[in-house]
Amino acid sequence: MKLSIASALLLGAGLTAAQTLPITDLVGTWSSKSNSTLTGSGFYNPVDEEFTEPKHPGISYSFSEDGFFEESYYRAVANPSDPRCPKGIIQWQHGSFTKQPNGSLVLVPIAVDGRQLYSDPCNYDSSIYTRYNTSEMFERYSVYQDPYHNITRLDLYKFDGAPLMPLYLAFSPPQMLPTTTLNPLTTAAPGGAKATAKVKRSELPLNHNVMMKRTPEMQRADRWWWFGVFMTGSGAVLYFFF
Ligand SMILES: *[C@@H]1O[C@H](CO)[C@@H](O)[C@H](O)[C@H]1NC(C)=O
Ligand SMILES: *[C@@H]1O[C@H](CO)[C@@H](O)[C@H](O)[C@H]1NC(C)=O
Ligand SMILES: *[C@@H]1O[C@H](CO)[C@@H](O)[C@H](O)[C@H]1NC(C)=O
Ligand SMILES: *[C@@H]1O[C@H](CO)[C@@H](O)[C@H](O)[C@H]1NC(C)=O
In whole angstroms, what is the distance from residue 132 CA to residue 111 CA? Predict the structure, then answer.
């Protein structure tokens, strides 16, 4: 959809000065080739604080017409010293994005909303559930029709110019959770459908260090907060409690 000048001006009024260029080509939900990791409520449920593990590793970004983004990452990290012991990382965050005059995209998350689940089943019985908050900068991007798959494709280039894995349009308009601050951990647990008597929810600490950050480079934190997290039988749904 092309914005008319009038609606573009209207939209522009609510945006920051930096966002002077059209962003409509980015609008939609984009997913890597396996197309099973997607943004939206099928990945992260902020009310129950639970992730649903996708069938295959992958990443997904959504961009809305009014300047919001959401991202889902599900990565398996190979363990060369013991191939039977891969680690898994699930990350989710959302916030607002701007296109800079030089073509860069800047993604600024809502700090209290992002979540990360790190699992290393061979070393720890529990997974580690923390907040996740990392700003991202993409040097540039391009949207075009992929000639091989005949699908609309988005290439994002990291801050250092290296391309991210190709993303393909999965939904338009995008499939996203509410773009406002969610941070449900500050409120009482709703009903406690999955809770047992011992389970108590409360706010995650704000000043934690996450285990893995993607930008500017992957870094390992030397300190983290532990939360009792267990996987249900199949491992398909992950819950936390402490
Ligand atoms: C583009 O602008 C952003 C924000 O002003 C800046 O951080 C980034 O380094 C610039 N990118 C390039 C490639 O100059
Ligand atoms: C979120 O990350 C930004 C830098 O990326 C940092 O300045 C800010 O303090 C962090 N916020 C919280 C609540 O951790
Ligand atoms: C590619 O997809 C478009 C619709 O998205 C269709 O019109 C076109 O025929 C397709 N081309 C090929 C080669 O399949
Ligand atoms: C990706 O998955 C979504 C939801 O299952 C589906 O609607 C879409 O057509 C898929 N896209 C591709 C390129 O397979």
Answer: 7
Distance of alpha carbon 158 from alpha carbon 104, whole angstroms: 9
Burial 45-54 (b: 16+ CB within 10 A, else e): ebebbbbebb
Count CB atoms within 10 A of the CB of residue 23. Answer: 19
**pLDDT digits 0-9 by tens, 207-223:** 455 666 665 444 443 33
Mutate to test the pocket of ligand 4, among 30, 41, 171 (most ligand atoms within 8 A of CB): 171
- The pLDDT value recorded for residue 183 is 79
| SS3 state of residue 185 | helix
Q: Does residue 76 contact residue 58 with C-beta atoms inside 8 Å?
A: no
This prediction has a pTM of: 0.76
* 40-95 residue pLDDT tens: 999 999 988 889 999 999 999 999 999 999 999 999 877 788 888 888 899 999 99
Give the pLDDT confidence score for residue 80 in this predicted structure: 81
| Residues contacting 103, CB < 8 A, separation 6+ | 21, 139, 140, 141
> Hey, how many other C-beta atoms are within 10 angstroms of the C-beta on 68?
19
Atom of ligand 1 nearest to the CA of 137: 7
3-state helix, strand, coil in the chain (%, to 5): 5, 35, 60
What is the structure's pLDDT at 22? 56
| Ligand 2 pocket, CB under 6 A | 111, 133-135, 206
Ligand 1 centroid distance, CA of 155 (Å):
18
Cis amide leading into 173 (omega within 30) = yes
